[in-house]
Amino acid sequence: MPLILEGLVTTLTPADTPHLAPMGPTVEPGLARFVLRPYPTSQTYQHLRQRGAGVLHVTDDALLLARAAIGPVVPFPPTRPAQAIAGVILADACRAAEFIVESIDESAERVALQCRTLALHELRPFFGFNRAKHAIVEAAILATRLAWLGRESVEAELARLAVPIRKTGGPDELTALEVLTDYVRSYYSPPLPNLADQS
């Protein structure tokens, strides 16, 4: 069974500015190779198609994952230059895999990019994921799928995920819940209740 790893991918735009997006590649042990499956309209795919390289990051920063899922992160998190490719590495990530795209399959709804790691960096220890961090990742994924999901199911799922976040989360996880809730509420009219404020 393939393992899907939730991470963050940095790419460079045509103007050489960094772009950040959450991605869930299918990975091999050790991150030597993996498959990215972006939508063909995504900026990440356009950058990878043009540049042929990027950086996959493993992080325990659930707030950054949440912010990246719903739009551009401003200000952009601190970075350092990649070594094996033209790109940037998130300075606070736990691991970073500089990769090249070896093949592209556009035959399905989502593009399949076969990627090979050129350089793997261990940047800092992985702090770990508790129930709140896991729930934030699930809520962030939910927030990217609003166009395909009905309001009732989104409201119910957010309410369920808010419980462990409020019970076990720290300040960053509570902020992430607020950010995601505000984003989802703004998608619907009338808006959903602010789940971050409920006790």
What does the model show?
This protein is an alpha+beta fold and 199 residues long. It has 2 domains: 3-122, Roll (Pnp Oxidase, Chain A), CATH 2.30.110.10; 131-187, Hypothetical membrane protein ta0354_69_121 (Methane Monooxygenase Hydroxylase, Chain G, domain 1), CATH 1.20.58. It is 33% helix and 27% strand. It is built from 5 helices and 10 strands. The strands form 2 sheets. Strands 1-4-5-10-9-6-2-3 form an 8-stranded antiparallel β-sheet. It has a two-stranded antiparallel sheet with strand order 7-8. A hairpin with a 6-residue loop joins strand 9 and strand 10 (112-122). It starts with a strand and ends in a 12-residue tail after the last helix.
Key descriptive features of the protein:
Pnp Oxidase, Chain A; globular; 2 domains; 10 strands; alpha+beta; 199 residues; Methane Monooxygenase Hydroxylase, Chain G, domain 1; eight-stranded antiparallel beta sheet; single chain
Chart the SSEs and their pairings.
Elements: E1 3-4, E2 7-12, E3 18-23, E4 26-27, E5 33-36, H1 43-51, E6 53-58, H2 62-70, E7 79-81, E8 88-90, E9 95-105, E10 112-122, H3 131-143, H4 151-168, H5 171-187
Antiparallel strand pairs: 1-4, 2-3, 2-6, 4-5, 5-10, 6-9, 7-8, 9-10
H/E series, N to C?
A: EEEEEHEHEEEEHHH
Shape verdict:
globular
Structural Rg = 17 Å
Strand order of the largest sheet: 1-4-5-10-9-6-2-3
Question: What's the story with the biggest beta sheet?
Answer: 8 strands, antiparallel
Tally the beta strands: 10
Question: What is the CATH topology descriptor of the largest domain?
Answer: Pnp Oxidase, Chain A
Mean pLDDT: 93
Q: By helix and strand content, what is the structural category?
A: alpha+beta
Q: Specify the CATH homologous superfamily of the largest domain.
A: Electron Transport, Fmn-binding Protein, Chain A
